[in-house]
Design a protein that fits this description.
The complex is a heterodimer of chains A (about 260) and B (about 375). Chain A is an alpha/beta fold and about 260 residues long. Chain A has helices at about 10-20, 55-65, 80-85, 85-95, 140-150, 160-175, 185-195, 200-210, 215-220, 220-225, 240-255, and strands at about 30-35, 50, 70-80, 100-105, 150-155, 180-185, 210, 230-235. In chain A, helix 1 (about 10-20) packs across helix 6 (about 160-175) and helix 4 packs across helix 5. Chain A starts with 7 loop residues before the first helix and ends in an 11-residue tail after the last helix. The model of chain A has no long low-confidence stretch (mean pLDDT about 95). With about 375 residues, chain B is α/β, with parallel strands linked by helices. In chain B, the strands form 2 sheets. In chain B, strands 2-1-3-4-6-5-11 form a 7-stranded mixed sheet, with helices on both faces. In chain B, helix 1 packs parallel to helix 6 and helix 11 (about 310-315) crosses helix 12 (about 330-340). Chain B starts with a helix and ends with a helix. The mean pLDDT of chain B is about 100. Classes of the chains: A alpha/beta (about 260), B alpha/beta (about 375). The interface of A and B includes residues 48, 52, 66, 67 and 249 of A. Strand 2 (about 50) of chain A pairs parallel with strand 7 (about 220) of chain B. Bound molecules: thiamine diphosphate and iron/sulfur cluster. The site of iron/sulfur cluster (SF4) has 11 residues of chain A, from helix 7. The site of iron/sulfur cluster has 11 residues of chain A, from helix 7.
Chain lengths: ~260, ~375
């Protein structure tokens, strides 16, 4: 289903190994996917699954998790799904701190539709719809997740497979909204247009420019240009939506006069 | 009680325990009611970031086992269309209330209209069939909400309940039936070995049982074309089978789904066809005509889709004149009536599209 050299399969492998190592049971695991090359992942899974519409996976997952907090809900999306067409849902899933794990393949373009630019495509990059260079700036998914209120944020790549698996496991184990962004080669489209036609050139780029968080943080601002941090970026324990909603229910069910908002 | 409140109460009676929505006049009272009552009943109320997310969330909750619903009006209903299509494709039971208001666009945001009749039916891309109901009184707001949930659960479909602003904001006395008084239907659950479960393999009644996420019956639901097992399947024969199935499961239960009411139609020379708020003006007009010695009757369309073609044919063919009253410009229902009765029939239209309701006087004028 995916092109040779595509990073999506590496992500899926790391996710499945994580499920296995954490002892996940298919019966209480729901994988929700968006639309795109990345969104096709559910066809390989034997867990419960919901293959949704482009950009809306998080909103579907929100309904599942809010109604049945016992389910483990994992959402697999592309950069188009998660922060371009679906950017609003991303902000609000993070703000609500829904107990979901978002796994995002960021290949810096729309793979499925033939390589047009997305909301993460770097400025100046050549794509099928930015032939003379992308006039827009790309968004930093991890930074966005952090300010919007995610409990856990990490970045990985298919080059750093072991670290990726660790981060995915941490994200799965974290209560609240957790995000793992994966910088991923799309040799067929993005690589071809940006001097990385061969997969190994893209992997080389991920290896050279992707630095462990500690090393990255030590760099001077001028040295950071073109580099990116790999690993865990945010880790906190704000209460998730369901925990807060339980408190709302307790107030709603309390005898009249004890509820918040009653005036007397 | 207000119409909007009655719809919320009807949903609770039917067992709805999940609501997600985005505020919009003239439907917001439904959300407000849910925000108060859902947590008391152990249910969930969520105010989402928009109507796209609201529609998505109720589908997710339904697949997790909830009876779920949302409520909106014109602009919000437009935003829901794509995900409503997923509920059709994925055969997900849920209820969408569209309290119709005047358009186009933001239009007269607080004023009534009945101009979404075609959007209810054809608002989404792709071949599909939907069930849409329209109440004409506050007590129908209650009972038809229960019916909407029953149809959704029984046929594994989204059901749209489409009152107009007049009915949503109307206040009338309603007697809430005791539990058990009205039938409440729950979706068919799978039985047998879980590994054999196929979420889109229909039983003899055309409807497949639906498991819930979290049960032993593991299943996939997809917006993409899929086989009986829910996994992607682009085979043309499979695609044709799916589209057929989505239509046939509704068509074969037409008798049960198409609901109408008649008032003095047995001997009617003049047949008024109406739905929602215009039913009330039509009845008043028909009574006035009877006083004048003219045999007039009213056919109220409760189910807007599938269209009541047989009922319209039976009454329309024996009437001398048929008058269709609706708050829209082009006569969205009148067009369907014309399809049934033919171009030669004497079909007259009463249309109003200025945000004002149709009065009995407006109707009497086209008869003179
Ligand atoms: C509402 C809507 N608009 C456009 C599309 C067409 N479309 C399908 S996939 C896609 C982009 C996918 O990009 P991304 O989410 O980054 O995933 P990738 O294919 O790169 O893995 C688009 C625009 C669609 N399916 N739905
Ligand atoms: S087009 Fe790009 S993202 Fe899609 S499968 Fe091929 S390499 Fe992967």
């Amino acid at each position: 289903m995916w092109c040779p050299g595509c990073g999506i399969g590496v992500m899926l492998g790391a996710l499945l190994r994580s499920f296995e190592e954490l002892g996940y049971d298919c019966r209480d695991t729901v994988v929700v996917t968006g639309i795109g090359c990345t969104g096709k992942s559910d066809d390989y899974l034997v867990t419960h699954a919901l293959h949704t519409t482009h950009g809306r996976a998080l909103a579907y997952a929100t309904g599942i998790k809010a109604f049945n907090p016992k389910l483990k809900v994992v959402v697999i999306m592309g950069d188009g799904d998660s922060v371009t067409i679906g950017g609003n849902h991303f902000l609000h899933a993070a703000r609500r701190n829904m107990d979901l794990t978002a796994i995002i393949i960021n290949n810096f373009n729309y793979g499925m539709t033939g390589g047009q630019f997305s909301g993460t495509t770097p400025s100046g990059a050549i794509t099928q719809t930015s032939f003379y260079g992308n006039p827009e700036r790309g968004i930093d998914i991890c930074a966005l997740a952090e300010v919007a209120g995610a409990n856990y944020v990490a970045r990985g790549t298919p080059y750093h497979v072991w670290e990726l698996k660790t981060n995915i496991q941490e994200a799965l184990s974290k209560k609240g909204f957790s995000v793992v962004e994966i910088y991923s080669p799309c040799p067929t489209h993005f690589g071809k247009n940006n001097q990385m036609k061969e997969t190994r050139q893209m992997l080389h780029w991920l290896k050279e420019k992707g630095l462990p968080v500690k090393d990255y943080n030590r760099l001077e601002p001028s040295q950071k240009e073109g580099c990116f941090a790999v690993g865990k970026l945010v880790d906190r324990d704000e209460p998730d939506f369901n925990t807060r909603y339980e408190a709302v229910r307790a107030r709603a069910m309390a005898p009249k006069g004890l509820r918040n908002g009653d005036t007397q | 009680m207000q119409g909007n409140q009655a719809m919320a109460e009807g949903a609770f009676y039917a067992g709805a325990r999940f609501y997600a929505g985005y505020p919009i006049t003239p439907s917001s009272e439904i959300a407000e009611e849910c925000s108060r009552k859902m947590p008391q009943m152990g249910g969930v109320f969520m105010q989402m970031e928009d109507e796209i997310a609201s529609m998505a969330a109720i589908i997710g909750a339904s697949l997790a086992g909830a009876k779920s619903f949302t409520a909106t009006s014109g602009p919000g209903f437009s935003l829901m269309q794509e995900n409503l299509g997923l509920a059709v494709m994925g055969e997900v039971p849920c209820v969408v209330i569209n309290v119709q208001r005047s358009g186009p666009s933001t239009g007269l945001a607080t004023k009534p209209a009945q101009s979404d009749v075609m959007q209810l039916r054809w608002g989404r891309h792709g071949d599909q069939m939907v069930i849409a109901l329209s109440p004409a009184s506050v007590s129908e707001c209650f009972s038809l909400t229960v019916t909407a949930f029953n149809f959704a659960e029984k046929f594994r479909v989204p059901v749209i309940l489409a009152p107009d602003e007049v009915i949503g904001h109307l206040r009338e006395n309603v007697r809430i039936p005791a539990p058990g008084e009205l039938e409440v239907i729950d979706r068919k659950k799978p039985s047998g070995p879980p590994e054999k479960y196929k979420p889109f393999a229909a039983d003899a009644d055309g409807v497949a049982p639906l498991a819930a996420y979290g049960s032993d019956y593991i299943f996939h639901v997809s917006s993409s074309m899929h086989g009986p097992d829910g996994y992607s399947n682009n085979n043309p024969a499979n695609a044709a089978w799916r589209v057929d199935q989505l239509h046939r499961k509704i068509e074969r239960h037409r008798e049960e789904i198409v609901l109408t009411k008649t008032f003095d139609t047995e001997d009617a020379d003049i047949l008024l066809i109406a739905f929602g708020a215009t039913t009330r003006a039509s009845r008043a007009a028909a009574l006035e005509l009877r006083k004048q010695g003219i045999r007039a009757g009213v056919l109220q369309l409760i189910t807007l889709w599938p269209f009541a073609d047989q009922e319209v044919a039976a009454l329309g063919q024996r009437a001398r004149t048929v008058i269709v009253t609706e708050m829209n410009y082009s006569g969205q229902v009148a067009g369907e009536v014309r399809k049934v009765l033919g171009a030669a029939a004497d079909i007259r239209q009463v249309n109003k599209y200025n945000g004002q309701i149709i009065t009995p006087q407006d109707i009497l004028e086209v008869i003179r």
